Amino acid sequence: MEADGGSRGNPGVAGYGALVRDPATGAVLDIDAQPLGRASNNVAEYSGLIAGLRLARSIDPEAAVHVMMDSKLVVEQMSGRWKIKHADMQKLAAEARGLLPPGQVTYEWIPRARNKDADLLSNEAMDAGASGTSWVKSSSGIRVAAGQGTAGTHDAGPLAQEAPVAEAAPAGAAGAAGPAEAGPARKVGRLHHVEIWVAELAEARASLGWLFQELGYTVSGEWSEGTSYQGAGEYLVLESGPDVTRGRHDRLRPGLNHLAFHAGSRAEVDALTAAARERGFTLMFADRHPFAGGRSHYAAYLEGPDGFEIELVADPA
Predict the structure, then answer these.
(1) CATH class of 2-139
(2) How many CB atoms lie within 10 A of CB 69?
């Protein structure tokens, strides 16, 4: 697997690219790239690693994967020879380690000249991000071998990301991942993403965006008229712009009434509710809180400054 990431400005317009290659033939089995909005070079490099590992796992979850990158930092940190001090890098490294069993992945630093295909993909992603468009797999300069390339893709939209598939046991094969005997689990019927149009983007980022991150979502893309937040599989988008009708959201009109999230224990729901109220959220149904949804349903119903309702649901007692 080959991966790269870059940032024009560091931090600046960022993107990553990754590909999986058949070690026996050199054929490219699949590719992936994604603009990341404004991010650092290190975040982009780690994002490329994560995307590449997901690609490899979706092709053959039991294959041994040999990662080749020109980022000395990522290779040394993931190999365990360098410490990871930055909190954001620690989270990304943990995500990468969780994709495949540790003994199934090896790392090698390579010069940039040997990483030109992944570099091209990351530059395609940055070009897309700079122009406010999506990266289109079918238009990439890196061609996928015939009959391959059915794993991760962003053709469906600029921020679409693949959800992780089931973990797999290590195998003894050397080199990059090979063709799969069985594909990943079908995703039909699962939520892909939710796009929320807002009148004031800065206000929505400070309220809803803050809450999404408190619930475990991470910023995966940022542009002049929107921000995306990646969850465990699905992602959320806050977007504004000239097509958005001015005015406050009315949850009582036909359409979306509210979003409900698992929010942990009752104590965690209470703590997050208190923090949200300090940021301008209003507690709804206060006279029946925290059982407004029923005697066995512990939850907080919050209305944001722009009129959006969020339900924070506690785990069963």
Answers:
(1) alpha beta
(2) 27
